[in-house]
Amino acid sequence: MTKYAFHNGSIVPIADAHVSITCTTFHYGIGCFAGIRAFWSEKDEQLYIFRAYDHYKRLLNSAKFLMSDVGYSNAELIEITAELLRKEEWRQNVYIRPIIYKDDGVFRVQLHDSTDKLAIYSQPVGAYIKADGALKVGVSSWRRVDDNAIPARGKISGTYINSALAKTEAVKNGYDEALVLTDDGHVSEASAANFFMVRDGVLITPPITDNVLEGITRKSIIEWGRSDFGMEVVERSIDRSELYLADEAFFCGTGVGVAAIGQVDGRLVGDGKVGPTSEKMLALYQKVTTGQVEKYKQWLTPVYSK
Ligand code: PMP
Question: Which pLDDT score is estimated for 40?
């Protein structure tokens, strides 16, 4: 159970971390957040925050869109997070949720002249989605928000209405997850995960300019594809019809880790089972996040001093 939050400049009991019903973000969704994971290594007796710098960089970039400034540097945000996790004494995998919100208490819809606040809390998370059933995915009737509407590359609170519409439609239609297309019909991403497919041994993912979140796991997978698995990795627009021809496909993200896709719109992807690339990406993800790969240890922030 979560005991603490960082709120209004200090670590307080979670029960004392409140926002008012007059909070701007509560009304209009004008806020931005991060979703970070820390992984417990039993062997090292250590809790590792995965790519904290990159997550906070994206958060601070998202805040830029919203003209929000909470006055903390990336390094300070990492230190606050580590302190919070230490205070919780977590010895298990946890999800960390920092949020920057606007709290003006007046009825105005604008970005400028606002009071910007920061809250961070963490909570335990279970194992990754079990992949022996590869996911059943449906192409959504909803379209991904466009950069000219709400920048999808940032993690902006209100954008998640778009994600929720797609996710609920998919689940109500009997799928596990949605694949959302851009307004011009190219594959963008899932409700809260990035998309990869494999065709003829080439690892392909939509470019950020197809309205996808600048995913940290996505960035890691691209690097692993090239440098650990010697694959050709291409960032290019993906047509819907290619989904039906892919040899393999998977989602990736902080929440899902790496999750293989077995079907799209009721058609099998490859043989419908977890493909070899998804399998080896997931294996490497688990190793890297728990500090078992020396060259990627620089991505990890150890929480406890030794
Ligand atoms: N796309 C969306 C819309 C998301 O919410 C997430 C989860 N943060 C992702 C992709 C995956 O990004 P990351 O790997 O940084 O968690």
Answer: 98
Domains of the chain: 4-124 (3.30.470.10), 135-289 (3.20.10.10)
- Nearest Cα residue to atom 7 of ligand 1: 192
Centroid of ligand 1 to alpha carbon of 142 (angstroms): 18
The residue with tokens 């335990």 is 124
By the 8 A CB rule, do 159 and 176 touch? no
CA distance 232 to 222: 9
pTM over 0.90: yes
Residue ranges around ligand 1 (CB below 6 Å): 35, 163, 189, 192-194, 213, 215-218, 253-255
How much helix, strand and coil, in percent to the nearest 5, is found in the chain?
A: 30, 30, 40
Residues ≥6 apart with Cβ < 8 Å to 294: none
| DSSP string across 270-291 | TTSS--HHHHHHHHHHHHHHTT
- Tokens representing 270 are 């490859």
> Which amino acid is located at 88 in the chain?
E
> Residue 130: its pLDDT value, please?
52
